[in-house]
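Annotated sample (chain length 339).
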Amino acid sequence: MQITFQGAMPARTQIIRASLQKPLETPINRYIPPNFSSENWIKPHFVDRFLNLFKKETITGRAFLPDGTYKISGFNKKKPAEKWQLHYDTDKKTLKSFSAFRADGKTLKYVKEYYANKKLKTLTFFQLDGKTIRFVSEYDGDGKLKKQKRFRLDGKALKYISEYDSKEKLKTKTQFRLNGKTILDISEYDGEKKIKTQKAFRADGKTISFVSEYDGDEKLTKMTFFQPDGKLPDYEVEFDPKEKIKTTNQFRPDGKTIDYISEYDGEKKIKTQKAFQKDGKTIDSISEFDSEEKLTKITFFEPDGTYIVKEYVSPKITRQKLYTKDGILLPSPISPLYN
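Output written by the structure step:
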């Protein structure tokens, strides 16, 4: 097809026209719309848009597609193996997508799609076969990352989804089980890539199993385990700065009233256990254990304020004493020493 210009041909147009005359590295099937004419083949905006790009890139082909959109193919002059393809809308101005290929020039490496305002919309990265999806990143209208979907080796089952805030900082991460549908856990972050909380779900992917909480250094501080319905707490575990168990709080069926509190020695061994009455506030008894977690003493509290101390002297011998609320030893009908 012959293209003619009135007067001297602009230098930039000569560059474009010269590239049109170069033989293509790979054949491209061209589709020419019925109403096509040489007058609208090259427009000034078309030349300006690609001039800077083509200084570093070599064009290998152009083609109209059956839907009227337009594609340009090429490769990097310094790195010929880096082949690419630009896909424009029917107006030849609006960039729809950019495709990058691997060294063979055929296998897709990634595809970028754009909004009408030229901002990045999605980035789809492929595995070595060029077909199986590795991950998909989604961006908002301002080109800021808002979500990323990471897939398993089959390219279909979701591994996890990361969501980002308006500053492109990690907000939440949802991990899935092997089927790619059932949620395993959901983690929340503080905006500095540090985890704050993590909700773990039961096999149905909906019922909460437990919730873990972390401090600013991502050290575990607390875990709350839920009852089978996943709505009410069953018990809590609190950790010290070294992430060792400090206390456990067991709740009654209402999920609010404390049944008992256990304290640990830092080596996962229980030291004391406080049992509460039905109000969850009044102490009913306190059990004490030795370094081997053997019961050594139980103190029982009575409604009138008195309390009984039962000491385990040996596996066969116990000693019991009755005290006033002020700690004064009282005469007791209970034998102080018996088998």
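Annotation: The first helix runs from residue 11 to 21.
Annotation: Confidence is low (pLDDT under 50) at residues 1-52, 335-339.
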